[in-house]
Each structure stands twice: as C-alpha cells, then as structure tokens.
Amino acid sequence: MLRSMFTAISALTLHQSYLDVVADNLANANTPGFKSSRVAFQDQFAQLLGVGSSPTTDLGGINPTQIGLGARLGSITPDFTQGTLQGTGRLMDLAIQGDGFFIYAEGAVNYYSREGTLEMDSQGYLVNAATGMRIQGWQALMTSGSMGAIDTGQPIGDLQVPLDSTLARATANSVLGGNLDSTAATGDSYDLTMGAYDSLGVLRSVTVRFTKTAANTWSWSATSGATGSGTLTFDTQGQYVSGSGAITIPASGGSTASAVTLDMSGMTQLAMASDAAALTQDGLAAGSLTGFSLISSTGEIYGSYSNGLQVRLGQVALATFVNPSGLQRSGQNLFQIGLNSGDPAVGAAGSGGRGTVASGYLEASNVDMAREFTNMILAQRGFQASSRIITTSDEMLQELVNLTR
Question: Most exposed: 88, 243, 366, 374, by fewest CB within 10 Å?
Fold first, then answer.
C-alpha cells in the first residue's frame, strides 16, 4: 500500500512541475524573443521481486518480476525553433532570422539574447531598452584612409554613435567636360578652374591649363599649388582618345595631401570656342551627424551627415553555440554560458551559420498555445489520476485497519 502512495505522491510533484513549465510558457506567449521549454519524464528505478531464470533443457526461461516505483523529471529543455518576425516600423528594433544570439554586456559579463529592442542612451551607446545593457559589436575606424572600415577579427566591444562628430570627404574623382577649340593655334592655352575639397573639408581652387601642342594634341598641367600633368589627344572627328590622369593637392593647414583623378573622357575638340569646365567632383565639406540607421541582413550601423555623407559607424556582432540548449536562463530574455553549452562563436551576421539581422522587426515568442493547452490538460489529468491513487491507497489502508476490529 505504502509503495503505491509514495509513487503517487512523487507523481503529484512531477505533474505540478509539468504545470509550472506550461504556465511559464503561456505567461510568455507575447514576450519577444522568448523560447518555450519542454518537459521530459523518466521512469524511476524498479524494485526487483524475482530475477527470473534462463531456459534449461527441460524448462523455458522466466522473465524477471519487477514493480516500478513511479516517474521522475528527466529534463526541462528550451526549444530554440525560429519565432515569427513581427514588423514594428521602428528601425532600432532588430530580429535574427536563423541561428545566433545578440550579445549584451554588463561590465565584464556577457549575456546572450534573441531580443533586439534597442535604444540610444545619453552618451550615444546602443543599449537594450529594458535592461540598459550595451549591445556588443565592432566600432568602425574613423581615421583618414580607413573611414568606416571594420575588422571583425578584432575583439567586440560597446557600440557607440559619435553624436557630436563632424566629417568631411576629400575629393578623389573629378569629371571634366566641354570643348577645346580645334582652330586654336599651336601654343595657345586655355585655363580651367575647378574646386576640390581637402581632407579637412576646405574647398581648394585648382587651375588646369590646356596648351595645344599639335593638330589633335593638347598638353595639360595643374597650377595654383597643385601638381600633375599629361597629354590629351583626340581623333580626327574631335572625339576623346586618351589623356585622363591625376593631380595632387598638397597638404595645407593640417590637411593631408590628396590625389584627385581627372576623368576627361567627355571632352571634345571641335571647331567652336573652348568651354571646358569641371562637371562633378565627389568631395564634401564638413558636416555634422544628423541621424543613423541599422541595416538589415548585416547589422551594420550607418551615420547620416548634413553634407550628405553616409559612413559606416559599426556592426552588431552575433554569437552561436554548439549546444544552445545548454545555456542558462537569467531572466529578462537573457541567457548565460552553461557548463554544456560550449563557448560562443562570435562573428558577423550572415557568416558561420549565424543567420541574418532584420531591422524594423522583433522575433515573436515561439510558444505554441494550442500545444500548451493540450499539455495543461495532460498535466491536470495526470495530477488527478495520482491523487486518485492516493485516495484509493488510503481507503485500502483503512480497510486493513478495520480488519483488526
């Protein structure tokens, strides 16, 4: 009698734990990035009443006689299947499509999460909106010659938007167009004045002098402090053949020397007055940061400046684990490294099976409410059956006591 009662009592506790897991799953049905848990039962060891015997020449074998002693909790494991992506219309909301976790830091401790609700704090750091933990990634280099470059081989760190930054872009390419008069005499020259920005965003004036040296040939050279020269040739129809080149603008006032490639392929030599001019150039004056955006797929962060410049400021890092089910839940949609999770493999989105990042979306909870309601009924029925076993065992014990009266 007591064996069945103890078995039923352990089953009551087990089904209560089952219901606890179901309740937690249903409570988080609308929690972004939440991963539901699954319960697995195991039977308890059995009491051996008879070991049985093997077959002999005269008798067959006898199976062992055993009485099971109930069930126990085998495991509670998280289910990391993909949740649906829900659009929020807010570009600072991030979701992961595929495997991978966002990395948040609180001091020297890293946490991992599938939830990417981001905000920018008063210092420009990108943080989780609920916890204030800083999201981790790679900050872009902002030095001359490597502006916006990211090295994903470097250690990750806090991502910060440079709120008070101003940037300029030195002119690297300029397109020249127009006509050089084919009726000009040998030795005649024509001066073209163009503007080019240096590395500090200062507009520098450069003169390019074209001098006719032959019927279809002009030499050109930069003046006004710039250096560079070349030979411009045309065919008999007055169309460009060759002659594009580069000039160098020297350093001045703290700026670095910069090279400007001149594209002269649109110039002509026809019997009309010379009107060559600079058509376009890609340099920009200094401008201040006006906003930033997070790019889908890669998780890159781009800053927008008042001069029209778009510069990569950083990139969000993702982590994967060999066994994500081995992670330890820390609350607030966060996980920590567990004894059986393995170490995180950190890298950029879209590489190493880490999935891609979707900006303007949040990953919904992967709780299947229909399945959880079914599990709730199963837990209830199991609890009721176990309580009925206790009632029946108690009645039988009462009958045993009554036998002595």
Answer: 374
User: Is-contact 312 300, C-beta < 8 A?
Assistant: yes
CB 250 within 8 A of CB 226: yes
Cβ distance 249 to 172 under 8 Å?
A: no
Determine how many CB atoms are found less than 10 A away from the CB of residue 216: 16
| 350 alpha carbon, distance to own chain's centre | 8
pLDDT in tens, 327-346: 999 999 999 999 999 999 99
Exposure pattern of 256-268 as b/e (b: 16+ CB <10 Å)? eebebebebeebb
Sheet with 229-234: strands ordered across:
189-197, 203-214, 217-223, 229-234, 240-242
Task: Give 271-308 as a DSSP string.
Answer: SS----EEEEE--EEEEEEEEEEEPTBT-EEEEEETTS
Q: Measure the CA–CA gap between 223 and 264, rounded to whole angstroms.
A: 17
Are residues 335 and 329 in contact, defined by beta-carbon separation less than 8 angstroms? Answer: yes
Digit-coded pLDDT (tens) for 141-186: 877 666 788 888 899 999 999 888 888 889 999 999 999 999 999 9
Is the torsion defined by CA of 364, 370, 371, 372 positive or negative?
positive
Q: Please give the backbone phi and psi of residue 66, each rounded to the nearest 5 degrees, phi first.
A: -135, 150
Give the whole-angstrom CA distance, residue 358 versus residue 97. Answer: 7
The two beta strands, 258-268 and 173-179, are parallel
For residue 405, what pLDDT band results from cuts at 50, 70 and 90? low
pLDDT-based confidence at 1, cuts 50/70/90?
Answer: low
Q: What angle do CA 362, 363, 364 make, to 5 degrees?
A: 110
Q: Which fold has domain 171-282?
A: Tick-borne Encephalitis virus Glycoprotein; domain 1 (2.60.98)
Angle at which helix 2-27 crosses helix 369-402, to 10 degrees, equals 160
User: Taking the model in full, what pTM does it have?
Assistant: 0.79
Lowest-confidence segment of 68-72, 255-259, 346-350, 379-383 by average pLDDT: 68-72
